[in-house]
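SAMPLE LOG
Freezer: B-3
Tube label: C17
Construct: single chain, 149 aa
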Amino acid sequence: MHFITGGSFNGKREWVKKTYGLTGTWLSAYQVKTLPDDFNHITSDLLVLEGIEIWLKETTKSYNSNKSREIWIDTINQWRTWEEAEPQRKLVVIGTDITKGIVPVEIENRLWRDVTGWAYQDLAAKADKVDVIWYGLNQTIKQTGDEEQ
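STRUCTURE (predicted):
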């Protein structure tokens, strides 16, 4: 699993397209509001999930921080199971970093920010590779195993 993060409008999507090409399935939280957990219908070997902070926000609307994180960890594990079922499969997860800057005043936005920070830590811990994209440039901050990309 490859986790890509960085600020809004910093070139994450374009960097992924350049790095991996356009030959996979792309699911965007900006279009699909439900956190995907079943990929049995996916036929391509490359799956890109974009905008995970939006899926996390939807989760925090219904659950407290502990339950949101529990759901998130279960979801990551299901994603990994899909990826590891076939050696050629690759899962790429893109999330905008919303954890910097001024802490929101509204409790629901603070909850979203906190859960997103924890979720990104969980994702980074399970990912084989983590890249931060700033201004279209990547910095690899984690790489394990024999990652080719």
